[in-house]
Amino acid sequence: MKMKSYLPPLFLFLLASVVGIQAQGTISNALAMDGKLSTLLSILNNNPALTQLLDDKSYGQRTFLAPSNTALANYTANLTSSGNTQTLMEAILSYHIMNGSFPASNLTSPGGVAAATFLQNSQYTNLGNGSSGNVVYASQYGSSGESNTPGKLEVFGGVGNSAPIVTTDIRYGNGYVHIVDDLLPLPQTCTGSMGKLSLSSLLVALNNAELSQTLDGTPHVTCFAPTQDAFTAAGSPENKLPKPDLVNALMFHTLGKAMYSPDLKTGASYQTLANQSIKVVRDGGALYLEGDGGGKAKVVMGNVIVKNGVMHVIDQVRLSFSKVGFC
Ligand SMILES: *[C@@H]1O[C@H](CO)[C@@H](O)[C@H](O)[C@H]1NC(C)=O
Ligand SMILES: *[C@@H]1O[C@H](CO)[C@@H](O)[C@H](O)[C@H]1NC(C)=O
Ligand SMILES: *[C@@H]1O[C@H](CO)[C@@H](O)[C@H](O)[C@H]1NC(C)=O
Ligand SMILES: *[C@@H]1O[C@H](CO)[C@@H](O)[C@H](O)[C@H]1NC(C)=O
Ligand SMILES: *[C@@H]1O[C@H](CO)[C@@H](O)[C@H](O)[C@H]1NC(C)=O
Ligand SMILES: *[C@@H]1O[C@H](CO)[C@@H](O)[C@H](O)[C@H]1NC(C)=O
Q1: Is the pLDDT of residue 245 over 70?
Q2: Fewer beta carbons below 10 Å: N end or C end of the chain?
Q3: Residues 144, 250: one domain?
């Protein structure tokens, strides 16, 4: 029986919706259903490599953070005037493809979710663990996942605006599509990210300790980055400490492994590169780190994704009152 071929296309489309066949559809089919995604659709139609990254069955489940027309508006205006637009667009959109199935019910869980993407371009990814893509962090509880009350669901990438998720759980053949109203900024180096956040004293400290290149070049690190106010309040130790003490103090603020906030278990201690440990404390809607000597710093901006791991901005340089602190 070939009844189906006599049915008009619209009827088939409606039928498909009713029985859920659209879940088998291509990314183009899914994006075409929402008028807010027409710019993205035309970008994908002109980019078979990106379309394949989303449609190829062999990569397993994926979750696409689909930038709306609003998110792409400024960007595409800029693209026409810049050089290597194809490579850049591929990097940006591959950073919006999470490796795995992450429905909204998953992303909204307290503490948030850190997930690898398909961003493998070595200009933005140096995690040193094979072909894994760099990571995004999704949270409804702020950048460190600790707010007491849920706010908007947003995704954090490289330093810059977080991207709010405005529409959730559109199904397509390989997983989920969530619409974001801003682009996720690509990860930069640690020192590049510190520059964007105006952490000038920290940059001076790294420079005086001759550690900038090591920090930027080492795969898979976590950097606890004190704010500018923290350095000022501590009397600008970046200019006063002898180099060995500065090196030790900076090592004390670094872990030799990328630990996004969900990886930092409450009450657990982690050994820093200075071989002394810091302990994770969660209290009253905030994430803290405690040094051996009793110093305690609050994470004021969590999960800034960098090329070689993650940075958490903290409000104190006095993580430790023993000789490894800055003071
Ligand atoms: C686009 O640029 C304008 C002006 O700079 C700004 O107000 C607006 O927020 C931008 N929109 C996006 C989506 O970046
Ligand atoms: C567009 O270009 C301007 C000037 O170079 C820059 O300030 C702005 O951040 C760019 N916008 C986007 C979305 O990349
Ligand atoms: C979210 O999904 C990931 C990957 O499937 C899984 O490891 C994690 O446990 C899920 N979290 C929640 C809260 O469902
Ligand atoms: C590589 O490291 C990232 C960041 O820690 C992690 O999300 C990813 O699962 C790792 N991949 C492998 C294959 O270990
Ligand atoms: C996605 O995850 C799978 C399973 O963990 C892994 O084999 C694959 O290398 C990952 N791909 C990327 C681009 O990270
Ligand atoms: C930390 O311990 C390791 C292994 O014991 C050693 O190789 C390294 O030099 C030590 N680092 C510091 C800063 O003491």
Answers
A1: yes
A2: N
A3: no
**Residue 327 is assigned to a structural domain of this protein:** no
**Residues 124-143, mean pLDDT to the nearest whole number:** 94
Which pTM does this prediction carry? 0.87
Tally of domains within the chain: 2
- 103 CA to centre of ligand 3 in angstroms: 9
Per the model's pLDDT, the better-predicted residue between 15 and 285 turns out to be: 285
Given 180, 205, 235, the domain boundary residue is 180
17 shares its domain with 92:
yes
* Residue 99 CA to ligand 5 centre (angstroms): 6
User: Could you tell me how far CA 50 lies from the centroid of its own chain?
Assistant: 20
Q: How far is CA 10 from CA 3, 6, 7, 35, 176, in A?
A: 15, 12, 8, 18, 24
The pLDDT of residue 40 is 95
Which residue ranges have their beta carbon within 6 Å of ligand 3? 100-102, 106, 109, 113
Instruction: Indicate whether 46 and 172 sit together in one domain.
Output: yes
User: Could you tell me the CATH number of the domain that includes residue 252?
Assistant: 2.30.180.10
Question: Cα-atom radius of gyration of the chain, to the nearest Å?
Answer: 22
Q: What confidence score (pLDDT) does residue 79 get?
A: 64
Range(s) of the domain holding residue 95: 3-180
Q: Atom 3, ligand 6: which residue's CA is nearest?
A: 275
Instruction: For residue 176, report the distance from its CA to the centre of ligand 3, in Å.
Output: 14
* Closest C-alpha to ligand 6, atom 7: 275
